[in-house]
Automatic annotation (TrEMBL):
GO cellular component: cytosol
InterPro entries hit by this protein: ArchSynthase1/Queuine_TRR (IPR050076), TGT (IPR004803), TGT-like_sf (IPR036511), tRNA_ribo_trans-like (IPR002616)
Gene: tgt
Organism: Massiliimalia timonensis
Residues covered by the tRNA-guanine(15) transglycosylase-like domain: 10-368
Protein name: Queuine tRNA-ribosyltransferase
A Pfam family recorded for this sequence: TGT
Residues that hold substrate according to the record: D89, S90, G91, G92, F93, D143, Q194, G221
Enzyme Commission no: 2.4.2.29
């Protein structure tokens, strides 16, 4: 259940209650694709890094170790030692991005596993069954993520199929939640808005799927290579048609600046691999912009990554030490860097919520929207 606590312009400060705890929104969901954050971060670390929701990947977990195994182990929460909410994506994006050989049909998608090449079929019912086995807090509907650019005609047909698939997802989830042997009978379902960069398709699709009165709604198919301004334009057009009383999730976004701009347009939830991926290459977020720790000027720099940060890495280690770890190819480099970036993102959301509560979000946006995405 979503409760809107405060609004400034289109920006929303809310609370989202789930069976695994209440999420303070706007929130960033930390991406643990295969039930782990890349860079050696455990579920127990995530609590200290202020993570509220972890996102795991349906397709990857289905391929390895298998959703049947995770079900036998008591579901994802028990398997990975994480007690707070988990969102599982439907596998749709991976099917379309990883599978070079795939056939999209009305019943679903036929494709080959990227791990061992074995043939896999995934449709709405299969995706719901896998996610029910995983027992996540929130399951995402199975959709087609259209390539950009795509024609208006193809995008329209794709939206219509995604809508038909959504009805099937809803029906199957209701059936699964009613079973006596389901680990999480309170599993929620989010629908996904598609329509490429076509405003008419986006609005029509959003109005259509809003009729299903789902637990939340996501905007998919953005941040896939289109110009940033196109993403903002679509958000401006779509969010007014999203239900006020449901959480809104912008999938796969993004930079700190993207998140601030997304919040300004009425989005509540975000996820992205960017903070952990960038950290593993020495690109670190700070309140002054992005710092490349590999630069020679940090060789003898005794200061923390960010002097205003109190993450575990900044409290204990210097830029010089972190740079040395990267240059020496020590695993610890990645762990310390990822801890810092995730803490930064979760603190950014905390500060956004605080600014919204105090009615000064527009000032916060003006100060940080461009700055945080600028290289130092």
């Amino acid at each position: 259940m979503y409760t809107l606590l405060k609004q400034e312009g289109n920006a929303r400060r809310g609370e989202f209650k789930t069976v695994h705890g209440t999420v303070q929104t706007p929130a960033f969901m930390n991406v643990g694709t295969a039930a782990a954050i890349k860079g050696g971060i455990s579920s127990y670390d995530l609590v200290d890094l202020k993570c509220q929701v972890e996102l795991c990947n349906t397709y990857h977990l289905h391929v390895r170790p298998g959703d049947d195994l995770i079900y036998e182990m008591g579901g994802l929460h028990r398997f990975m030692g994480w007690e707070r909410p988990i969102l599982t994506d439907s596998g749709g994006f991976q099917v379309f991005s990883l599978a070079s050989l795939r056939k999209i049909k009305e019943e679903g998608v036929y494709f080959n596993s990227h791990v061992d090449g074995r043939k896999i079929f995934m449709g709405p019912e299969e995706s719901m069954r896998i996610q029910s086995h995983l027992a996540s807090t929130i399951a995402m509907a199975f959709d087609e993520c259209v390539e950009n650019p795509s024609t208006h005609e193809y995008s329209k047909h794709s939206c219509e199929r995604t809508t038909r698939w959504l009805y099937r997802c809803k029906e199957e989830m209701e059936r699964l939640n009613a079973r006596h042997d389901t680990i999480n009978p309170h599993q929620m379902l989010f629908g996904i808005n598609q329509g490429c960069v076509f405003e008419d398709l986006r609005v029509a699709h959003m109005e259509e799927i809003a009729k299903l009165d789902l637990d939340g709604y996501a905007i998919g198919g953005l941040a896939v290579g289109e110009p940033t301004q196109d993403m903002y334009r679509i958000l401006d057009v779509v969010t007014p048609h999203m239900p006020q009383n449901k959480p809104r999730y912008l999938m796969g976004v993004g930079t700190p600046g993207n998140i601030i701009e997304g919040v300004a347009r009425g989005v509540d939830l975000f996820d992205c691999v960017m903070p952990s991926r960038n950290a593993r290459h020495g690109h670190l977020n700070t309140w002054s912009g992005i710092r490349n720790i590999m630069n020679a000027k940090y060789q003898k720099d005794d200061a923390p990554i960010d002097e205003s940060c109190d993450c575990p890495t900044c409290r204990r280690h210097s830029r010089a030490y972190l740079r040395h770890l990267f240059k020496a190819n020590e695993m610890l480099a990645m762990r310390l860097a990822v801890m810092h970036n995730l803490y930064f993102y979760n603190t950014l959301m905390e500060k956004i919520r605080e600014a919204l509560e105090q009615g000064r979000f527009s000032e916060f946006r003006e100060k940080y929207s461009v700055l945080l995405d600028t290289r130092i």
